[in-house]
Amino acid sequence: MDDHVVVLGAGIAGLLAARVLAERFERVTLVERDVPAEDGPAFRPGVPQSRHVHVLWSRGVRLLDELLPGVTGEVLARGGRLLESPGDLLWLSPADWFGKVPGAQILVAGRELLDWSVRRAVLADPRITFRPGCEATALVPDTAHRAVIGVRVRERTSAEPPGPAADGRTPTKGPAAGRSGRSGRSGRAGRGDGRIDAALVVDATGRTSKAPVWLAEAGWPAPAVTRYDSHLAYSSRYFRAPPHDGRAWEAMYVQGRPDLPRGAVLAPQDGGRWLVTLVGNGRHAPPTRAEEFLGYARSLRSPALYDAVREAEPLTAPTGFRHTANEWRHYERLADWPHGFVVLGDAACRFNPVYGHGMTVAALAAQALREVLASLEPREVPAASRRIQRRTAAAAAVAWQIATSEDLRYPETEGPAPDRMTRVLQRYMSRVMVAANTDPAVSGRFFGVLSLTEPPGTLLAPAVMLRVLSKWRLPAAPETSDYPLVR
Question: Are the C-beta atoms of 310 and 232 separated by less than 8 Å?
Fold first, then answer.
């Protein structure tokens, strides 16, 4: 089976991994528990967070274009938007409103649209076979207990419903094959358990990954886990976008902070819609009752977002999401690691989604996988699984640092206490935010780090530190105006 690999999970991480593996292996089987809609973007249960605002930072956009040329153009043609942040984004940071400063590009689009576009592009490769409606249940170890040589699967029955679409429409049933005759088994009723043999099995099943259980059942150790939970909650609702009345913004972000951990994002979507996501920590969790949605928006640090949507026509009821903890399963630390097995994406490391890094990190992991594979023959890949695990895990390090250090500002966050260095960096980053609001030199570096384009050390360069410290007397959490004074 040296020419065959299996990827579990057809989210962004799994799709991009399949794309990269198809460059080196003759056959790639992509196994997905859901049966995605075939004729257009639609909600599927395996990506419950797709009902909420998603952004792809500029680093992720570039990597996506490298891996799948033309896919970003398709997303834009179907209603996605490429915006400048903060130029096109009315953003109230913890310090103040961002002025006209340089930032980074973001691709703003519905997660259903992004997934559908990427899936179509990936499945256009004849080396990739898609098996929707197929659930992985266990790993298959070799007799010497050194390697994973396959995966056990269960065909789901067609009676298991796909769930309602995020915009209130019923999704089309059927496999998103991307081309005729390549969809594998497509959700037909009751074919029972089976086994797929492969030289390499990649788990990209996301937050619900069963890899620790599978490893333990096969006799390998489970990984240590580091977890930080700020108890962030989402509530999102679609609105019909009103006519563009000359407003100076395309999207909006009213950010919370520890003294008022409530915020909201408004983002344009395909189909002439706005998606509004309310966010709050702990007891400030946003409501999911329609009659309370606008009241929560009115309680934010600025009434700007409430004023924008209060007369807009709601298209859906609010939808909540609560599984937002940062969790790193440290597979890369295990000394006893099987050949032929790799865990990628949220299955290995997931972040508080409020920072918008999940899809960009998935693209970075695919890039890291591609770089390792370039130096290996296909028959050498299984034995290099531990090296691949370490390289792909490293792609998450900066996003993890950003998410956990920011979450630790909130008293209700559960997890290891911050060390002295983290507390010092938190205070310094508060000053960076103050400077970035108005200073182009600092803003450019800040957004370079936030978009995962530049390393965090960029913000510690002497020239940047001097500019940051020159504004040391300005308050880090001041009272701010309802709207920016100058825009």
Answer: no
The string of DSSP letters for 97-141 reads B--S---EEEEE--HHHHHHHHHHHHHTSTTEEEEETEEEEEEEE
**What is the reported pLDDT for 169?**
37
Any idea which residue has 């429409």 for tokens? Answer: 169
In angstroms, the first-to-last Cα distance of the chain is 60
Question: Mutual orientation of helices 440-450 and 397-407 as an angle, nearest 10°?
Answer: 110
Say which residue the tokens 């390998």 belong to. Answer: 220
Q: Please count the other Cβ atoms lying within 10 Å of the Cβ belonging to residue 289.
A: 11
Give yes or no for residue 473 having a pLDDT over 90.
no
Of 228 and 479, the structure prediction assigns the larger pLDDT to 228
Distance CA 457, CA 460 (A): 5
- The tokens for 234 are 């989402």
In this prediction, residue 156 carries a pLDDT of 79
Range 70-75, long-range pairs (CB < 8 A, 24+ positions) = 70/121, 71/117, 71/118, 71/121, 72/107, 74/117, 74/120, 74/121, 75/107, 75/109, 75/113, 75/114, 75/117
Task: Pick the closest to residue 198 from 385, 388, 382 (CA basis).
Answer: 382
Q: Are 139 and 341 in contact (CB under 8 A)?
A: yes
Sequence-ordered alpha helix ranges (H) in 91-161 = 111-123
Looking up tokens 């089309």 gives 172
Q: Are 452 and 57 in contact (CB under 8 A)?
A: yes
The DSSP call for residue 260 is B
Strands 148-155 and 134-141: antiparallel
What does the alpha-carbon distance between residue 422 and residue 401 come to, in Å, rounded to a whole number?
A: 9
Element (H, E) at 404: helix 397-407
Residues near 39 by Cβ (< 8 Å), separated by ≥ 6? 172, 174
Read off the pLDDT of residues 275-325 as tens digits, 9 standing for 90 and up. 999 999 999 999 999 999 999 999 999 999 999 999 999 999 999 999 999
CA distance 242 to 411: 39
239 and 314 Cβ atoms separated by less than 8 Å:
yes
